[in-house]
Specification:
Elements: E1 7-19, E2 32-44, E3 47-51, H1 58-64, E4 68-69, H2 76-82, E5 92-94, E6 113-117, H3 118-125, H4 132-135, E7 151-154, E8 158-161, E9 164-168, E10 177-183, E11 186-192, H5 198-202, H6 218-231, E12 234-237
Parallel strand pairs: 3-5, 5-6, 6-7, 11-12
Antiparallel strand pairs: 1-2, 1-4, 2-3, 8-9, 9-10, 10-11
Amino acid sequence: MCAAQYTIAPVSVGMLTIDHASLVWGQQYGTKVQVPVMMFYVHGGGRRILVDTGCSDPESAARYHYPFVRTPEQDPTRALAAVGVHPSEIDTVVATHLHWDHCYNHELFPQARFLVQRPELQFAAAPYPIFANAYEAPTTGMTPAYSRTKFEVLDGDLDLADGLKIVFAPGHTPGMQCLLVNTSAGVYYIASDNVGLYENLEGNRFGRPIPGVNYVDLGEYYATLRAMLRVADHILPGHDVRVLDRRVYP
């Protein structure tokens, strides 16, 4: 039986404007929505873990990707302070994947170990051309934000601690990984971009759950979503503003 229990605090570091259909297959093409860029702070059992680390500054984001706004309170260091942790206290960073809006700011966490899946690191170095910009790959002329990060490279699932499990979850990207977190209210699944919005879970005329349109392997995506539904009591999407309705989970 798992004894350790944790809390999860969603941390918004800004708002991104994107097309709704990029998050939910076949829905509202051309409709722009504002969604949060989030980190997730997991605390308990003597551990301080961060899932993802946010994106670049607003100017760079707008130049190379999408319109992005950040208030002073959403500065990563200030936003983490608001949930009771300083970046130097983070012991582990789980990089769900290496898209630009999830893997900036690594320099803020000098004491952390950084975990990434091997297929993700390999694909990010030379992605398919249509994904090169999302990774800020060298082929675009950019230098990826994580280029100086000393990663610990994983090959599949990892029991990170009692009550914490990294699960290999490919689909959105080849090396996607997510975190299962034991809490007083059951098991939470921090889904990142495998579930961008609660709407993905609610489904639509194409079925339930429904993926976004940004994926590398649709078969793996669906297999990952089915596995997620089997093991999770609660799911936290990666870009749904409703996640921020609660300061802490559970």
